[in-house]
Amino acid sequence: FSQTSSRGRTLRPKKKIMDGGVNGSGLPVNNKQRAMLPNKSRGDFTRNSRKDSEGLSESPDLEFEYADTDKWAAELSELYSYTEGPEFALNRKCFEEEFRTHVSEKKWTELDGAEHRAHAMRLLDGLEVTAREKRLKVARAILYMAQGTFAECDSEAEVQHWMRYNIFLLLDVGTFSALVDLLNMEIDNTAACSSAVRKPAISLADSTDLRVLLNIMYLMVETIQQDDPADRPEWKIIRETFRTELGSPLFNNEPVSVMLFGMVTKFCSGHAPHFPMKKVLLLLWKSILFTLGGFEQLQTIKVHKREELGLPPLPEDSIRVIRSMRAASPPASASDLIEQQQKRARREHKALIKQDNLDQFNEKDPYKADDSREDEDDNDDSDNSIEPETFPLERDEVMPPPIPHPPSERVSFPKGLPWAPKVREKDIENFLESSRSKFIGYTLGSDTDTVVGLPRPIHESIKTLKQVCRRVAQHFINCGEEEVEMCATELLYQGILPSLPQYMIALLKILLAAAPTSKAKTDSINILADVLPEEMPTTVLQSMKLGVDVNRHKEIIVKAISAILLLLLKHFKLNHIYQFEYMAQHLVFANCIPLILKFFNQNIMSYITAKNSISVLDFPYCVVHELPELTAESLEAGDNNQFCWRNLFSCINLLRILNKLTKWKHSRTMMLVVFKSAPILKRALKVKQAMMQLYVLKLLKVQTKYLGRQWRKSNMKTMSAIYQKVRHRLNDDWAYGNDLDARPWDFQAEECALRANIERFNSRRYDKSHSNPDFLPVDNCLQSVLGQRVDLPEDFQMNYDLWLEREVFSKPISWEELLQ
């Protein structure tokens, strides 16, 4: 975008590209992919419906509803890459060969429950054989069952019905435990690992056994976690039992999620490059989501815990508030401002010609509305106008008066701010300290009740602050043994605690490799092992299909990792604040903040509207319907969706993670300033979706006071949007530069103090060796100590008389001192 200076010169800022390897669409094309795209320019294979140069007023509101997951069919289809398409028929063949040896005439859908169970038990026994080929055939037959025995179904709904029935049957006969054992065996298969390490190019064939096992496990977890009111009572019991077992250390003495985290780190270390990482991450995400619960369950747990601790109820449900919010108009870019000025000049020219018409309409402003907010919306001549709801009308010529609508057709929106204001107890203490220093000349520490000597307005201010003060539960270190509730979150934290830093680094490494702004480097990890075919494409059509598949593959990986990190942060924060701080600090140490900013340093509108999917190849559509012949034109057209659900979901998750890492952390907020995040975040406001805009505005709000007066002056629309959309902290001067905490020498001290507290917490609660005696719980009760039974050694009992004589009778005792 060009910008015009005060002297009339055109300034064109240099466009900084953080990494190469990005084609014209804003999506990555790595070196391997380049080799697969013959005789055609690489930028042709990725489709986008928007370009940077389009006017902002053309972007519509996105009808997106944020949830834990996408629709069930979409989540099922994302498990498979398009390269795996031929394996559906192979799974069916393996099942039918096995099935026909026992049942010759009937179809699977025609058998009764007892016959279904008998065949499932036979397949389960087949997993015990030692021959790898035989075991793989049986696993494929089980996978075909989990896929809904689709050859006997006529519609997608019927496939999903039989999927649910078959998966509950497989779970009931004990298939999942057998799959976990087989997966552990494949993880420890050193021959496969060493073979993959030596191979110059890894393809789909190197991970066949792992992919089949992970596919079955994912389908089981994803299907069972879907709560269907029509389920049988016994299925509901099986579902709850499975949820408990999945989060408990029953499988290999650790939760399944910990085993999957181990696969992630082994893959990133380079010891197992053939692991199908997309499937591992999807299974890890769904396992965490099922065992710990999603965002609705988090809200329920939060309300329940506040009741237990005697805290007042929350003033609002944040999920409902966000869903009811509307998107704001994004701030105008430099090119839009120039275009606006040109249109304004054209209007002034027309005004001279049509002065009579103007005089006629001067008597009554045709754009005047009853709502004062609409006055501000329509005033597009002012650079500082607030545009919370719609874009201003572009009035190139004088329009006739609008036709009045009946009142019933007007849509009314609630006036006022969406959030109840909030304040912390620490903020009240700081306010009282400064007031006492100013008016009395002394301070009282953390006393928030004594207001003697303070003026009446200060009394009223303190009363108002206390009314909106959000009390939180304090975690105290008690003197005795601490009682820890062994919930699923606690079990998971204990499982990943020893290697949590390595897990976070591994997840961020994969996220970096999958980010659209990353280029393929020689030392970066290869995340395409489970999408590249054995034989490279030879036609343009095959290359286009593979190009779509690779980009879709990366998008799904970003979606899974962003959801995993956000879920863990939210659950750990609710379980114990230091569990959250431990994970958050290691994410910060692993450069998560600049990585997320790098992810957003792209044409984010193109990323969100990217069409990297071929709907006719998605499961279960592809196994029920006759596939049409694919052409270059049909691939280029893509689907008709307004946006890509998974990409918008990923962007919101990454923004929420960034908010959680920086909230109330001055040193991390300054990292946002140092990495020049403001222009990157401001570009993300182009996406007209209320939830995404809210989290962008939150990140801008925390750094506004450090961006300078000129930035605030030239970004008044953004400032107005922050005021309207983001929760207010009553004594937070976010819009001004009057911050006393901007002390750069405190950055390291803040993180070090937090790290010391976290280490004390982990040592006290989880260090079984008790290497540091200072962290041992102390029993201070005299009766309890004297009442303890002490086992004395045998030689002491034999010489007890001598000990009494030497230590008691022969020593003088000053009873006065002892009694004092």
From TrEMBL:
Domain Far11/STRP N-terminal: start-end pairs: 59-357
ATP-binding keyword on record: no
GO cellular component terms listed in the entry, alphabetical order: cytosol
Location, primary (coarse class): cytoplasm
Annotated region described as Disordered, given as residue ranges: 1-60, 327-413
Basic and acidic residues bias (residue ranges): 41-54, 350-371
SMART domains linked: DUF3402, N1221
Entry keywords, A to Z: Cytoplasm, Phosphoprotein
Annotated compartments: Cytoplasm
Compositionally biased intervals (Acidic residues): 372-386
Far11/STRP C-terminal domain segment(s): 455-800
One GO term (biological process): cytoskeleton organization
Similarity comment: Belongs to the STRIP family.
The protein's role, per its UniProt record: Plays a role in the regulation of cell morphology and cytoskeletal organization. Required in the cortical actin filament dynamics and cell shape. Part of the striatin-interacting phosphatase and kinase (STRIPAK) complexes. STRIPAK complexes have critical roles in protein (de)phosphorylation and are regulators of multiple signaling pathways including Hippo, MAPK, nuclear receptor and cytoskeleton remodeling. Different types of STRIPAK complexes are involved in a variety of biological processes such as cell growth, differentiation, apoptosis, metabolism and immune regulation.
UniProt name for this protein: Striatin interacting protein 1
